[in-house]
Amino acid sequence: MTGQTPAEVLAEVRGRTGFITLHRPRALNALSLGMVRALYQVLRQWQQDPAVLAIAIRGQGREGPFGAFCAGGDIRFLHQAAVDGNPQLEDFFTEEYQLNHLTHHLGKPYIAFMDGVVMGGGMGISQGASLRIVTERTRMAMPETAIGLFPDVGGGFFLSRTPGHVGEYLGLTGATIGAGDAVAVGLADGYLPAERLPALWEALAGDFADGPAIADYVRAQLQPVPSPMAAHREVIDRVFALPTLTAMAQALQDAGSDWAAETLRLLRQRSPLMLHVVLEQIRRARALGLADDLRMERDLVRNCFYLREDRRRNSETIEGIRALAIDKDQRPQWKPARIEEVDAAEVQAFFASPWPAPLHPLAHLR
């Protein structure tokens, strides 16, 4: 029909495999509320369909399939919804976290083709996959502290389970990593050159006996890849194991290396308040299962916008998105301005749930 909006999520079954393509290439497949709802609906349908043995998901690039997976959530929408008091802001996070939970519990192979940018919400819909494929084009990050947010979508759960203290490093700095580092720290399962993705995607429509056979076929294609981060693992684990951000900043300053200087520069750019929140989040999450972590993150994200009566005016998140994506001045006015000035009581207030436990919007997750 003329004027109809093109679908942002394309889904089809070929052979015994369900194929999903995120189809919002101009926005690098950033997730809208409609996309979250479409993904949840199709995954639930295929989860319950015995004719579907496995599920594969990819992103549409600007020049064709692959090349971009998902750049996160639609932060422009989140900013406008927060400023307007639009209740769809609450719907977005509740439904996105339900989707994240579902991807971990599909009960059949779920194969994520993590080519190109994989950030924020893109991590949320891929970290639950049984096979996570990265390429030489993969740019992976949880960069939320740059917009005054925290690594949500289960970020506390999957970052806290990386080796050593890599989770604190990635969550606090928002550093971008490539394929080799993603595999090395357990955020991907294997590497494949991008040129081989189309053939593998098509092969999944072939005649397979069962879901494990499809997963075995994919696993056999994956190749080893070196990890540049390996050269810095000792200092990462030493610095990011320290008990406070002030101690981390001092240790990076004392280290005297180019890598340490760049890491400290990244930290100093982020929201000081949210850095403290993120450190607490990741350390709490080490003792939590996925459902409890998502409930904690749902509390946190609510408090990012509505912690105090004036939070909508003074929200770090709204200010961070304004500076990065709305006005694009790249000069967020963080409050407070320095890591050393953050009040511990304000950090703890983020972890207070606005809901009684039985009425929590994610109370049903197990």
TrEMBL record:
Alphabetized Pfam families for the sequence: ECH_2
Protein's UniProt keywords contain Zinc: no
Residue span, Enoyl-CoA hydratase/isomerase domain: 18-351
Keyword hit for Transmembrane helix: no
Entries under InterPro entries matching the protein: ClpP/crotonase-like_dom_sf, ECH_dom, HIBYL-CoA-H
Keyword terms of this UniProt record: Hydrolase
Molecular function as annotated in GO: 3-hydroxyisobutyryl-CoA hydrolase activity
GO biological process: L-valine catabolic process
Matching SUPFAM superfamilies: ClpP/crotonase
NCBIfam families (UniProt xref): PRK05617.1
Designated name of the protein: 3-hydroxyisobutyryl-CoA hydrolase
